[in-house]
Amino acid sequence: GENVEQHPSTLSVQEGDSAVIKCTYSDSASNYFPWYKQELGKRPQLIIDIRSNVGEKKDQRIAVTLNKTAKHFSLHITETQPEDSAVYFCAASSGQGAQKLVFGQGTRLTINP
Amino acid sequence: ETGVTQSPTHLIKTRGQQVTLRCSSQSGHNTVSWYQQALGQGPQFIFQYYREEENGRGNFPPRFSGLQFPNYSSELNVNALELDDSALYLCASSLDSFQETQYFGPGTRLLVL
């Protein structure tokens, strides 16, 4: 079955700097890759997603890139702000049968003022 | 915020007991997926319900069961509770079983003593 590895597990950056979180997946049939942000005690919130027919997608300060050949995808946050501090999860879905999401282990991002 | 709601928010049970968790999906969504999120981990897929039928299951034992009702709300039942069942239980709704985008509820935090 699908396996998703996420790195780093913790990331600390200065406010205004960029943050990059990387994930790799094992199932070449995976074709949908969402990123979720989870603040302490709250629900995972979808912040951006990408499908396998697209190499890059951007939404304001957030961008996601996908390399299907290497089976990895990354989240880029520019001009980081204190409210970006949270745990970020990547996930992959195979698109076959039930649309189950397989999640990475999460990255705890801390923005230092 | 999504329109997905869950009840109760917190629950304390003892080993061997049974528990029922509830989820109300976003308006217009007919598919509900359930996930277990242990502390410090990413969510793990339990199963998915589509139009009142189980539509895929993760690596969880049969004592985890579910239901989906005609209004597409859903229940997760766990029998013979074990200490390791302590976790945040999340439901996520999607437009239909072929739509990958899933929107999460706030979760039910279950503690088994």
Topology diagram in text:
The complex is a heterodimer of chains A (113) and B (113).
Chain A: E1 4-7, E2 10-14, E3 19-25, E4 32-38, E5 45-51, E6 56-59, E7 62-67, E8 72-77, E9 86-93, E10 101-103, E11 107-112
Parallel strand pairs in A: 2-11
Antiparallel strand pairs in A: 1-3, 3-8, 4-5, 4-9, 6-7, 7-8, 9-10, 9-11
Chain B: E1 5-7, E2 10-13, E3 19-24, E4 31-37, E5 44-50, E6 53-57, E7 64-68, E8 74-78, E9 87-94, E10 103-104, E11 108-112
Parallel strand pairs in B: 2-11
Antiparallel strand pairs in B: 1-3, 3-8, 4-5, 4-9, 5-6, 7-8, 9-10, 9-11
Descriptive report:
- The complex is a heterodimer of chains A (113) and B (113).
- Chain A is 0% helix and 56% strand.
- Chain A has 113 residues and is mainly β.
- In chain A, strands 2, 4, 5, 9, 10 and 11 form a six-stranded mixed β-sheet that branches. In chain A, strands 1-3-8-7-6 form a five-stranded antiparallel β-sheet, with no helix packed on it.
- In chain A, strand 6 and strand 7 form a beta hairpin.
- The N and C termini of chain A lie far apart (41 Å).
- In chain A, 36% of the residues are buried.
- Chain B is mainly β and 113 residues long.
- Chain B is built from no helices and eleven strands.
- The mean pLDDT of chain B is 93.
- The N and C termini of chain B lie far apart (32 Å).
- Classes of the chains: A mainly beta (113), B mainly beta (113).
- At the A-B interface, strand 4, strand 5, strand 9 and strand 10 of A face strand 4, strand 5, strand 9 and strand 10 of B.
